[in-house]
Write a structure and sequence with these properties.
The complex is a heterodimer of chains A (about 475) and B (about 200). Chain A has about 475 residues and is an alpha/beta fold. Chain A has 24 helices and 13 strands. In chain A, the strands form three sheets. Chain A has a six-stranded parallel beta sheet with strand order 1-10-7-4-2-3, sandwiched between helices. In chain A, strand 5 and strand 6 form a beta hairpin. In chain A, helix 2 crosses helix 12 and helix 3 crosses helix 12. The radius of gyration of chain A is 26 Å and the shape is globular. Chain B is α/β, with parallel strands linked by helices and about 200 residues long. Chain B contains six helices and twelve strands. In chain B, the strands form three sheets. In chain B, strands 1-12-7-4-2-3 form a six-stranded parallel beta sheet, sandwiched between helices. Chain B has a four-stranded mixed beta sheet with strand order 8-5-6-9. In chain B, strands 10-11 form a two-stranded antiparallel sheet. In chain B, strand 5 and strand 6 form a beta hairpin. In chain B, helix 2 crosses helix 4. The longest helix of chain B has 17 residues. At the A-B interface, helix 2, helix 8, helix 10, helix 11 and helix 12 of A face helix 5, helix 6, strand 9 and strand 10 of B.
Amino acid sequence: MSGLRARPGFLDRAGRALADPLTRRAVAAATDRFRTARRAALDALDDPEGLRDRARAIRAATLARLPDLIDRLEERVRAAGGHVVRAATAAEACGYVAGVCRERGARLVVKSKSMVSEEVGLNHALGAEGVRVVETDLGEFIIQLAGEPPSHLVAPAIHKSRRQVADLFGLASDGGAEPDAAALTAWARARLREEFLRADVGLSGVNFAVAESGTIVLVTNEGNGRLVTSLPRVHVALMGLERVVPTWNDLAVLLTLLPRSATGQKMTSYVSFITGPRRAGEADGPEEFHLVIVDNGRSALLGTEYEEVLHCIRCGSCLNVCPVYRQVGGHAYGWVYSGPIGAVLTPLLAGMETWDDLPLASSLCAACTEVCPVKIPLHDLLLRLRSARVRRGLAGAGERLAFRLWAFVAARPAAYRLAVSLAALAQRPLVRDGHLVRGPAPLAAWLRDRDFPALADRSFQQLWASGRLDSAAGSGDADAGGGTR
Amino acid sequence: MNGPGTSLDREGLVRRFTTALEAAAGGVRRAPDAVAGGQILVEVVKTAGGGPVLLVRDPVLEAAGAAEALAAAGVETSFWEPGQPPNRLRQAATRARVGVTVPRLAIADTGTLVLVPAAGAGRTVDLLPPVHAAVVPTARLVPDLSAALARLGGSVPPSTVALVTGPSRTADIELQLTLGVHGPGTVVAVLVDGLE
């Protein structure tokens, strides 16, 4: 279908990704490691299924009264001395943060990982104001230097080799020993430490926001999240509308699942709970705290057939098990969010018209649904998006014609039998070893990268009618498509 | 099940805490009383290569005679003094090789130290120096995350709470585990009996 698209789509990006063996190896290694670690960490829990059910119930109950909870969160943050702003759009979110920087005369912003800030294009917006933004998560720092988007939700720079990182750090060795990961990390530590100590504003994401106390929760391993929220005079936190949890009891459930699902850790190295700015009598910490609650299309999903996508806690476990993601990596998805969750979220937030091909980037095997800690039926949502795509007339003319023909033939037994007999004859020159290896125009693109089991010489219906079904089935050949030749 | 505080319970929590923190690449030492805790702290500092050491102001460290023991061993020490300007404090934390904290709680299940900054305990004492040593009364061990959050949460929690589980870590370069990326590369908990 790529030939029918005017602009580059998933298939074009996937093609580029598949041609890069280094990235493919790195993505495979990372996803294998996270997947294995996740399973071990979940198995070690007393009742992982029960916990996932509780987490799902908490997320559903949260969305059912989201406006009330956001009101409560805002009230509690203000009571703790923080500022709260609700940004309906990406532009409003960027505008508010740019305004805070302008009023404080901030020139340097240090930032810990925040997916929503990438979603709204915050770095670009601040850059346009002359503010320098430094990503401090090591992986994000690397891809910022490279000018590339993240390739994995949890490990954004897995596609970069040590040598490439050394080049980006300006440590290219002239025939000397290649720097190891520890040396590169030490270099980044020293370099970023200076930025932390000089920065005017610290910018963070939010993993969870507890409504009952106005507390934001940050889950990190490197400690950059704590430095960003402790050292600069001003702390600005960005959250997607749906990050809210009602109570600390609810938080305990989600916080038990998040690291185990993401990296297989019982607990990440650091989890910070921040309630407003520093208080009277405290010797350090930011003097100002701003919470930016970003909608950007989320509230429009409430009450729709897609609402459950807002359950997501951004663990990345659906990426690690996805047979498509594992081959093509994050860049093929074209935006901030990748893997199955990206294939669902991107069309819903960034526009179905532009991103209608992402829901097709799935085999619908449902491995994503099986591992999701909050049990989002991701494969169902992908199917719903596919139907919406057809309903909106976004499917190509060829595809629509093919399905109309199929519907016609499948509803008429005589026409079906005739079509199968004809196809069995017509396919003969195209079959090798029981598989269709090439085909006419509509099939050609699909068959370029795959083989399809050929139609059997005698159809099931013919075998049934001739009473020879038992002997054919008894041949023990599971590959019915090619086995009868 | 035993009620909280029985010695049987305590030993079980210590074992779980030790296993979990060691699995997270942290170290655990045990002291039978406060004074022994101070001596073990000196050993931890020496193993780490010596001072300067930055300590939080806390009754637990006073009971352990930590500053005196370190000074007697010839280690340069200073305290996080709330009266000083923030920049001075920050410099002290940046210069120190070892930051010494006293966690409010410790979580046995995950090997986690629960740090709550206060007037005499800044937010970065554990974070900026390359080595973090925590002196933890064993009475402060709680079984799991839920038990810890139940004591910290509610409607008015502290301005900030940090859960610390082992050293700062990353695997962002070629998936190789590297410790000490932004925070300390070494974390040691000294569990001390006989203190509250």
